[in-house]
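User: I'm curious what two different proteins look like when written out as structure tokens. Can you demonstrate?

Assistant: Sure. I'll show them one after the other, since each token string lines up with its own sequence. Here's the first protein:
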Amino acid sequence: MKKLFPIVAFITVALISMTMAGFAYFATQEAARIKFEAAADDALNRIESRIDLHLSLLRSTQALFDARNGDISQNEFKAFFNALDVDNNFAGLRGIGFLRLAKAGDEAAIERDILHDHGGSHPVYPDTTQPWRAPIVLFEPLDPSNQTSIGYDMFTEPVRREAIEKAMSDDQQHASGLVQLGQGTGAAQTFTGFLVFVRLNVETAPDVINASRSSTAGFLYAAFRARDLFQIALSRSPLLPVNTEIYDGAADGDNLLFRSETPPASSFGDRLLVTRKIMVAGRPWTVLFRPTSAFSQPSSRAIPVMLGLFGLLLASAIALVARYQERAYEAASRLHETTEKSLIEKDLMLQEMKHRIKNSITRVLAIARQTASRATDVNEFSSSFSARLQAMAASQDMLTRSRWQKADLGDLLRIELGQVFGKELPEGMLSGPEVLLDETTTQALGLTFHELATNALKYGEAGNSVGALKVDWSLEGRGSERTLVLNWRETGQKKLEAPANTGFGTKLIDLNVTRELRGTIKRDFQANGLNVEIRIPLTS
């Protein structure tokens, strides 16, 4: 059995190393997926924000018409549109228009209004058998290429008609399916896009139709050039390494609204494909994201390979050492024949060697596990590991110097804040009496101060001037009823607001204070900064 020990050791360590290399590989793949999903969600937020901005323009136009009871002339509508500076603020918007809703047979009244506003004859077209007519009577920008759109009845086109009929039933915005803008109006150039409709004067539509401008029902609509709209949304710096495809409804080639010019990286295939469903003005869209060649994985694929090779080398070294151990044991057995004393000495030497080998194996495997589970590359491992060791060691160093008895609150604050801000703290920044903390309180408050200081550096004025931060503390009560009251005050020009979502750092602070130390914490977000009050009971 002893002769087989080198082989068994080699196989065991090799299997462990290969298993760890496999875990490292899958961890690398999972990290890449998480990183790309974050990039895809960022791209989706940009798209949704851009669409919301454009739809808000439609809402403001609706408010203008409602305030004037629909009595808006062509010149007034043009002045309102020009004031919006659409080219600079709303790229991708082809224009905004107004449709007059009328029953079939009432076209003459609409044509008279068009003649009055535009100074020229624009008949309602094309002919239709539909019971309703919804011609364009106002549109901006009304350049020469769009003149022929005046009088065009959108109710005659099925895709537009579907959205208009939905807009008839409520006060919500309703998007159309994919359309060719300019098609049917004789425009020289068409664009792939979509329309969004919202009704006006709903109290008279669709049962009562009056030819007077102030009460005739109709629809405001916005026309969007899909390519321009989405390219502007996705071209904001920093550029994202994503290829984007947007479909009206299901992800089908006939429904394609937009596809990024930068192609997806073929090396990833569909392994990192991210699919998102969104609603735009009541219409479902499907958005697909794929990584481009600019996407870099968070950790190198070489790490699992290096880890596997290292494990094989380690297994070989252990087998070799075990072989030498076996030979040494045989030599000790032969020496036993000469003298019992020599045998005892050799046996002790072998036991010590075995002990050291096992300890070495344990340490090497522990380091390998940490590398496999945390490292993205060698440089990041080195820098992040060193920083974490320094942060963790700060509070423990204080306890070590006091033989794990007590640590001073003021010294703890100076060390933690100094590490975060990387500079000497100004006089008067910290004030309060001497307070000695036990081991548990020191560890919990050390992490709490580190998180508060990091947030102040990122979001507060303290990132520009350390003097914007003041920390003071006091003691209330006596004996076993003492309570530490600590006030953390951040002031400056920045207006801090309560975050919509609770981050990990905030949860960590709350858990340390409320559960670990059985205290309370209150945050007061003000116009000129943030006040945090922490109250912690102190044991005698």
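Here's a second, unrelated protein for contrast:
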Amino acid sequence: MKSGKRNQPFSRLLRYVGKSRYALLGVFLSAVIGNTCMMLAPKLVGQAINQIVPWETGGFTPGWMVPMLKTLGMIALVVLVGSAFNWLTALFANLAANRTVKILRTDLFNKLGRLPLKYFDSHSRGDMMSRFTNDIDAISDGLNQGIPQLVSGVLTVLLCLGFMLSLNPMVTLVAVFVTPLCFLVGFFITKYGSRRFREQSRVLGRLNGYAEELISGQRTVKAFGYEGRSFDQFQKINGELYQCGYRAQFASALVNPSTRFVNNIAYVLVGVFGILAVLRGGLDVGGVASFLTYTAQFSKPFNEITSITMQLQLAMAAAHRVFAVLDETEQDPEPENAQELEKAQGEVIFSHVRFSYTPDRPLITDFNLQVRPGTTVAIVGPTGAGKTTLVNLLMRFYEVNAGNIMIDGRDITGLTRDSLRRSFGMVLQDTWLFAGTVRDNIAYGKPDATDEEVEAAAKAAHAHSFIRRLPEGYQTRIAEDGGNLSQGQKQLLTIARAMLLDPPMLILDEATSSVDILTEMRIQKVFRKMMEGKTAFIIAHRLSTIQDADLILVLNQGDVVELGTHEELLAKGGFYHKLYNSQFAPAE
């Protein structure tokens, strides 16, 4: 995406607004009718004044009140009609703004689904949530106030000019002459304020991200007595936000009084030149009254727009952050001839695979491995050796820098991601549950599963007993991220979720790390039965859980340092032997 496009949130936001063309048409038509009626009122008021003050004839004429009452009736009618259509203008504007925000929020959510996993690894969840909530709300507020003000303001200026020219062109020039000063004053102050509002949005995202981290990690915060230091850090960011907000609000508050001061100068000048025009006979008393009203109406749009400068600048700053996400590089698209992986046999081949999370720090340099169908492969090694990275590459959460990964003889880059990932059942160390029922969480990957299938999977995972003790059994609602369950219970549910799918290949990444030893032994038996005839990749730190693996892959710094069965590797007395003895030798 070109940087020029990134720096044009206003024009891009207008294109989104343009998608609500019928609502905008309603805004325009109702604004034209409403503003025309409201602009007729000052001219009729001038006529009424001339009918009340017969200064030219020197006295009242018989029946002078009848035409004045007619004029007052016309004034009441045009004001009533104008108010009704101005209400319609606001209604259509709100429809356009709300539909625009709906489309923008939908595009943002869809964009997140197309972003690669590395984007989420490098951005805080709190900041992303801030773009979804605070920034979208700021855009909504700006559009709800900006659309009717912009349309009505332009029409008001044009109509005022037309009516003023019809009264006296020379006095009109006085009002028009002062108008550019409003633009200059508003432009320079708004330019200063826009930078402050962008900075405010950025710091607000940081604050949300920090708050989200502390809330989600509250147990750790309390366990280490970090409350005081976390509060100090929060105060630091909050103070920075206060300073940004203070400068932004100061700039926003400065615009309206400045432009009003310029407009008041114009108002005084029009009054002076209007009186001179009356003395010369170029204008009557009612015309002066109308002119003063039109002058106020002429400057009103500038004052109204500057009065909502804060919302508009916040909206532009928020749009800049939202469009920054929409401009992010998406994951590589599926090839047009991508194939579906159906009924996979489970043969997996890594051929000269190279990968690094950052270009300057290579992790996997030349990885080769051939796994026959039905083989159980255990992957062990110290922290940071690249164990989980292999799984990420196999699932195409990340793409290899070089080399190939093939399943059943087909390169995984030529397969659809959906079919590839559905061929694997994953149970990770980090559990994830959504706010919903226990049943829905187990059936997450198979929504059409029957109650009997869900219950069978739970029994196989040894989760059925604790589920029955819940208040509503399988219909018990789980709090966000399983907050009302223990860590072990959450892991049992994720194991049941994988067992329900019954995929041809399995990935177990410390799948039993949060359960007790007795439950782990039971689940290991279930896993062994579940893995019969299937290709399985097991990442484990407790080497007692992988002694029966067909192949143990020992990694260190992204490279395979040893390969073989448990007995073969112990006999070698190498790296695996040291890892094993570090866990079992003291006990023996």
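A detail about the second structure: DSSP finds 20 helices and twelve strands in the chain.
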